[in-house]
Design goal:
The chain has 388 residues and is an all-alpha fold. It has 19 helices and 2 strands.
Length: 388
């Protein structure tokens, strides 16, 4: 039997199974797919095919773009201080805490400890966006505030990785220049493009965005950087267009959640080596505790002040990690900064932080009922109850 065909069949079944289990249990499909990925990689002997690695990489960038497009720029303008404080301290405290702990208590090298700090400082735009869309909170102002804060957190992560590890090169200059040009031109060109090619069953609008994201990915690889930041900024630049054309976000989400994201989350689970986690269980638990405590310390005081009805939900969602945490860990492994055991520990912590805080937030702190009844006052940050 052709092993690749068998692996493809199993992966297809797991994608379907993940959706069914998610609906039956009322748990985010992203969490189910990560769990199924762990089983596939460790117990079913499934290796990630090359096409899956490509789709997973594209899915992370595509989700990041959609997350940027969902950020309400008015919320970002009005709530810039709240977003900056929540997102900024969501990055700073875990970054410093994990770096300090890995170096002083786990006795990792200085650079390996820096990778740990970067990997565990992130908030997963992919997980947060997927969960908010599934629960309908992406359209509420508390969801938009969380998305804006995620942007600040991951901006800090990208900047930290760039300053500490990425070496300037001509390709980096080319990457930045091309990214800036496309981010400037696409929103202006998009309306002209849609007038001529829009509203067709072959979806040229989606293909246009996919082409631009693939350009980002190509030049990011050439420059030894990553396309997460330009993809998010592009989404942010196109958020007004998405607001004006209500049908477009639905079409983009259909492509993302039906085809791309299942393989992104499955692959994340398949990256986890259970044997390495068992061997290094104590460092994994300690780093997980450090990350969560640092996130709570950094986020909760400001969430309690600016989103008092959803402070724990906001804190827990800001504690998630996946996309850039995995990317940062993989960068450290490929660069020889961390070894495979350290990589498995970091990815294990990242995946655990994607699953555990999200599950707790959805199970016990989800504001979905309040979101139906209440409106979040952007000017004051308070909740105003709407009389039915």
């Amino acid at each position: 039997m052709n092993e690749s065909i068998f692996a493809n069949m199993i992966l297809g079944i797991l994608v379907l199974l993940g959706s069914m289990v998610s609906i039956e249990l009322g748990i985010s499909v992203a969490l189910i797919e990560i769990f199924l990925g762990v089983i596939a990689g460790n117990h079913l002997g499934i290796q990630s095919p090359q096409w899956m690695s490509f789709l997973a990489g594209l899915a992370g960038i595509f989700l990041t773009f959609l997350a940027g497009a969902e950020v309400d720029t008015e919320v970002l303008k009005i709530k810039w201080k709240e977003s900056l404080l929540i997102g900024g301290f969501s990055f700073l405290l875990p970054f410093a805490g994990a770096w300090f702990f890995a170096f002083n208590f786990l006795h990792w090298t200085w650079q390996a400890s820096q990778i740990a700090g970067i990997a565990l400082s992130t908030t997963s735009l992919a997980v947060v966006y997927a969960v908010l869309v599934e629960s309908g909170l992406n359209k509420t102002d508390i969801g938009k505030l969380i998305m804006a804060s995620c942007f600040i957190t991951d901006m800090g992560t990208v900047v930290a990785l760039s300053i500490l590890f990425i070496h300037p090169s001509i390709w980096l200059i080319v990457f930045v220049a091309i990214s800036a040009l496309l981010i400037f031109l696409l929103p202006k060109f998009h309306s002209i493009f849609c007038k001529r090619y829009g509203n067709k069953v072959i979806e040229p609008e989606i293909k246009l965005v996919l082409a631009v994201l693939l350009i980002f990915m190509f030049f990011a690889e050439k420059s030894e950087s990553h396309a997460v930041l330009p993809a998010f900024i592009l989404g942010l630049a196109m958020s007004k267009i998405f607001e004006e054309h209500k049908h477009q976000p639905t079409r983009f989400r259909t492509v993302a959640f039906a085809i791309l994201t299942p393989f992104f989350f499955l692959k994340a689970g398949m990256n986890v080596s259970l044997s390495a986690l068992v061997t290094n269980f104590l460092p994994l638990v300690l780093l997980f505790v450090v990350k969560i405590l640092a996130k709570v310390a950094g986020v909760f005081p400001f969430a309690n002040k600016y989103a008092p009805q959803s402070e724990w939900y906001t804190t827990l969602m800001m504690s998630t990690g996946l996309t850039f945490g995995t990317i940062s860990s993989l960068y450290g492994l490929n660069a020889g900064i961390i070894d495979k055991a350290q990589f498995s520990v970091l990815v294990g912590v990242v995946v655990a932080s994607a699953v555990i805080p999200t599950f707790i937030a959805q199970k016990w702190f989800s504001p979905r009922e309040e979101a139906v009844k209440d409106n979040f006052d952007l000017q004051s940050g308070s909740v105003v109850t709407t009389q039915e």
